[in-house]
Amino acid sequence: MTDNACWWVYIIEADDSSLYTGISTDVERRFQQHATGKGAKYFNARQPHRIVWREKQSTRSAASQREAAIKKMSRQAKLQLIASKHSAQ
Questions:
Q1: How many CB atoms lie within 10 A of CB 27?
Q2: Out of 3.40.47.10, 3.10.310.10, 3.40.1440.10, 1.10.10.10, which CATH number does the structure's domain 7-88 have?
Q3: Domains of the chain by residue range
Q4: Where are the beta strands (DSSP E) in the chain?
Q5: Would you give per-residue pLDDT tens digits along the chain (89 residues)?
Q6: 13 CB contacts (<8 Å, ≥6 apart)?
Q7: C-alpha gyration radius of the chain
Q8: CB neighbours of 19 closer than 8 A, spacing ≥ 6?
Q9: Residue 46 CB partners (closer than 8 Å, separation 6+)
């Protein structure tokens, strides 16, 4: 994978209603990895339920920076981000 690939920042809602934020060049593939235990340790104790938000970034660096900013947000701020993206679609 090169840095020229399209990168995505995504939020997955888990089966316990918690929110997980990550980055990938293929969000659906990454979701399947999480679902089958080949993704983040976060999903060892819970199952991914659905992808609730995604945002395209031009580089891995930009995606990583956006991921870090989202991870610092409160749950309420993340829910507002998800809601604003849905209303814009």
A1: 17
A2: 3.40.1440.10
A3: 7-88
A4: 7-14, 19-24, 48-57
A5: 444 679 999 999 999 999 999 999 999 999 999 999 898 999 999 999 999 999 999 999 999 999 999 999 999 999 999 998 765 44
A6: 19, 48, 49, 50, 52
A7: 13
A8: 11, 12, 13, 52, 75, 78, 79
A9: 14, 15, 16, 18
Residue that the structure tokens 């956006």 belong to = 66
- Tell me the whole-structure pTM to 2 decimals: 0.89
What pLDDT, on a 0 to 100 scale, did the predictor assign at position 86?
64
Token output for 8: 């995505």
User: Residue 18 is encoded by which pair of tokens?
Assistant: 């918690």
63: helix, coil or strand?
helix
